[in-house]
Design brief:
two-stranded antiparallel sheet
Length: 140
């Protein structure tokens, strides 16, 4: 092997090892990790896997009426998933706001406002999720 080829091979292995060491020692921010984990949780809880596998209709039009929510708990439309993902996301944002309110105890006003907003978001998400489950159970 010529000296030029040996030098190129050694430079390539050095650049790969340098790249690998940069990736292996990289530490992502806690906000990025939180967003990715929460996004995955909302996707799974909302029914994203069901939509990928079964490819449901977005909605149907029957007897001069649109149906956006499937009138049964065993099936769902694409709109069911979108609605549940939005509501779960609101609930998670409410939980994060509650967490932030516990961290700002030195500023009483900010902590109180964050707590009220967080409780409101969590309660709204819960109430609307229960209401939509009720609608699916009653077929309305």
């Amino acid at each position: 092997m010529s000296n030029k080829a040996k030098k190129q091979a050694s430079e390539l292995s050095f650049s790969i090892s340098k790249w690998f060491s940069k990736i292996s020692t990289m530490k992502p921010s806690s906000v990025a990790v939180t967003v990715v984990v929460m996004g995955a949780a909302v996707f799974l809880l909302g029914g994203g896997v069901y939509d990928i596998i079964n490819q449901p209709y977005p909605a149907i039009y029957v007897n001069n009426r649109f149906y956006f929510l499937y009138p049964s708990l065993s099936e769902q439309f694409l709109f069911d998933t979108v609605l549940s993902v939005i509501l779960y996301g609101i609930g998670f944002v409410g939980l994060l706001t509650l967490y932030q309110s516990a961290r700002h105890v030195t500023n009483q006003r900010q902590a109180y406002m964050s707590m009220v907003i967080g409780i409101t978001l969590v309660a709204l998400a819960y109430i609307f999720l229960e209401y939509f489950v009720y609608l699916k159970l009653t077929g309305g």
